[in-house]
Structure formats: C-alpha cells, structure tokens
Amino acid sequence: MARKLAVVGAGLMGSGIAQVSAAAGWDVVLRDITDAALTRGTDGIKASYDKFVAKGRLTAEDAGAALARITTTTDLDAAADADVVVEAVFEKLDVKHEIFRALDKLVRDDTVLASNTSAIPITKIAAVTTRPERVVGTHFFSPVPMMQLCELVRGLKTSDEALTAARDFAESVGKTCIVVRRDVAGFVTTRLISALVVEAARLYESGVATAEDIDTACKLGFGHAMGPLATADLTGVDILLHAAENIYTETQDEKFAPPELMRRMVDAGDIGRKSGQGFYPH
Predict the structure, then answer these.
(1) How far apart are alpha carbons 207 and 203 in whole angstroms?
(2) Rounded to 10 degrees, what is the CA torsion of 146, 241, 14, 92?
(3) Domain 3-hydroxyacyl-CoA dehydrogenase C-terminal spans what residues (predicted)?
(4) What is the distance in angstroms between the CA of the first residue and the CA of the last residue of the chain?
C-alpha cells in the first residue's frame, strides 16, 4: 500500500518536498490556503519534472505518474489520514503553532508531525500539541530536488520512533540525513551559514572588500562551492535575515546580530535573485 504524505505550504520548499516525494512513490496531498498558491506550486513541480525529462534523468512516463500522485487542496482536513505531515510555511512561530494545533486534532496517533523550519526550535513548535514525542524537524534545503541534505532535528521530547520514521521518510526520497541531537535555535546548518553570511555582510558593509572578493576568498580559500553573499542572494537576503534574527533572539550571541545593511536591503526589496538585486545584480 502506498504511503501518504501531506505537505502544508505549497511554496518553493513545500512544492519541492512534494515533488521528490511523489517521484519516490509517495501519495502526496499538497495544501495551501489559496488556489492561486497551489497552482503556482504545481506549475513549478511540472516545470521541474519537465527539466529532469529533458536531461534524461526521468522518463516522461515516470514524470506523469509522479504528477498524478499529487493532489492539491485548501482543506487541512485532507491531512487526516497521512502517515507523515510536513509543515513548510513561513518562519513565524505563531503561524506554525496555528497549524500544529489543528493537525494535533486531525491526524492519527501514529502520524509523524514534521516541520521544515530552518531555525525555530522544534520543542517550541511541539509545545502546542498533545503529542510532542511525535514532532520532529525535517529541514530540507533549496532547491529540494537538487540538494541532497536533510537535517533531522530532535525536540526535547521527540521519541526514537518518530526520529526513525522521519529518517526513513527522508531517505526514501533520496536524502542523506544528519541528526541534530540537541534542539538549539538554528540547528547546525542555519547557525553555520547565518554566522558566515552576517560576518561577510559586515565586511562588505564596512568596505573591507567587495562582495566578489569575499565570495572568492571562501570558494578558493575554503573550498566552498558558493560564497556566503552569493548564497544569501540565492536563498533570499530576507530569509537569512529572519533566520539570523531568530537565532540572535534565542541566544543573544552577537555573532548572529545582522548588520544594518541587511535590514536596509530587505526594506528596499533587494533580497537577491528573486527580486533581481541583492549583493549582486541578477
């Protein structure tokens, strides 16, 4: 019997998770609050499958079958019979709380409730449910079809069984997992990239070096595939600003305090590739 996944949020991350899961044989219900958001999500999934077909990495038949395994809805009740639910909405705790409270009343006792958060402690998200032992972090990376990593995050009360189920799910869709054993804000990956981006932005803001030279230093000096400021443009300066602020709020560690330049860029809408301008023109 096919396993069922519910993905809450049809944005870039949610649609990417739906895409790789359907391609791996999961029956997927993709939920968002508007039909327009769902259409954008499924259009993106189809376009991505088409690219894989064009490159010979997926047959047209398999792409069609994967697309047929995805259904869309604006009704959260559609998650009721899912084996795994992945929440992939905006990084605001109150928004996530609203969803997890509702899911807690809907889903089966054995369902794994996962969050794709990149920085908010899983224990905080799980606290509004009656089953914190079933809540786990499954932090995928963008673009999901291309990035191999999934960061599994254990909340204070996450059970071994839920963590194992989350690993089985992530590995079944082709990801390599790391486990965050202590639920710190930002986990492993977001803490590392936030600290690097914040310091790179400070160096750039204070005129120490150009954006290009800072990124070249990281690529050639440390073997990074992409420099921190180019990474910020790809991910979204707004998203990294928000992540760094979340970690700073939790830790009061100055290395995560974003420089004024990042705030002003976000105020001006210069948030990277998606806006046409970030640390670089696009």
Answers:
(1) 6
(2) 160
(3) 186-280
(4) 46
Tokens coding 111 = 């369902």
CA distance 197 to 237: 9
- 43, two tokens: 């259009």
Q: What percent of the chain has pLDDT over 90?
A: 94
Q: Does the pLDDT at position 1 exceed 80?
A: no
Q: Is 136 helix (H, G, I), strand (E, B) or coil?
A: strand
The response to whether 159 counts as a known ligand-binding position is no
Task: Locate 212 and state its tokens.
Answer: 């290009």
Q: Mapping DSSP to helix (H, G, I), strand (E, B) and coil, where does residue 68 land?
A: helix
**Angle, nearest 10°, between helix axes 228-235 and 211-222?**
110
3-state secondary structure of 94: helix
pLDDT at residue 76, as a whole number: 97
3-state helix, strand, coil in the chain (%, to 5): 50, 15, 35
Answer yes or no: are the C-beta atoms of 103 and 76 closer than 8 Å: yes
Task: Give the separation between CA 119 and CA 233, rounded to whole angstroms.
Answer: 18
48 marked ligand binding residue: yes
pTM value?
Answer: 0.91
Extract the tokens encoding 189: 């990956």
H/E stretch holding 8 reads strand 4-8
Sign of CA dihedral 223, 226, 229, 235: negative
DSSP notation for 256-268: GS--HHHHHHHHH
Torsion over CA: 256, 92, 47, 25 (sign): positive
Residue 138 has pLDDT above 70, yes or no: yes
Give the residue from 274, 174, 272, 170 showing the smallest Cα distance to 226: 272
Place of tokens 């997927």: 28
> Does the annotation list 118 as a binding residue?
yes
In which band, very low, low, confident or very high, does the pLDDT at 246 lie, cut at 50, 70 and 90? confident
Q: Mean pLDDT for the chain?
A: 96
